[in-house]
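Researcher: Next entry in the queue.
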Amino acid sequence: MDLERAAAELRVHYQTVYRWVRDGILPAMRIGPEYDVDAADVERLVAVRSGRDADGDGPCAPDRWVDELVKALVDGDERSARSLLLALRQSGVKPTALCDGLILPALRAVEERRAAGSTSAADRLLAVGICERLAALLAFPRRGRPRGTAIVAGPEPAGHRLPGLLATVALRDDLWRVHDLGANVPARDIVDFAGERNPHTIVLAAPKAHRPSRDLLATVEGAVAVPVVWYEPETPLTELAGRVRSVVGSWRNRG
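Model: Structure for this entry, 255 residues:
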């Protein structure tokens, strides 16, 4: 369908639909001077908007959105996954709620399918990669006075980047200035970077299975003059943000 019909179905102005197409919220194919959108994508956006969460709190979406994301991940359909995420974000759901209530449950479902043998290891890796890129869409800084500066890093052997990206989403949504160093960063490099940037805290992020040894943690903690916080994706992001504020606040009061 064309954008005018899509706007009528969505009950919004034509320019609003055009902006959603431009921003990637509503996928579209350009045919000459016009855009063509899939009716299924319009129906998804109608459904998302009808269940919009005004304050962005609580579960980010009904179970059907998790199921839809699982299907997109298993199929390797990144376009649909991105469209669903951005539609929910546009409807007012907070980035942390999207991570805790949509991305992580969907990825856990894919992991369960892998354990049961219904999907392959390659399918799981593809799903992880898509989830990393979805989280990256949510990791932009918010406007406002920063609480301070944080370094986020996945120390060796951290595995994939998703835990660090999730931690970055949580901290930036809580108005921290974040330097995300990525995954599999040597402890010495984390310490050296902290010496250059003088952060207020360091967040080490990795899945539970890749949690670094006590010796590695002791190396970082003993070499920097700021609190070090551990994060793994089993921890809700709102809890992570609160813990960082508490730890940094206690550290400042101690000084």
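Model: Strands lie at 29-31, 34-36, 149-153, 177-180, 201-205, 228-231.
Researcher: Noted, moving on.
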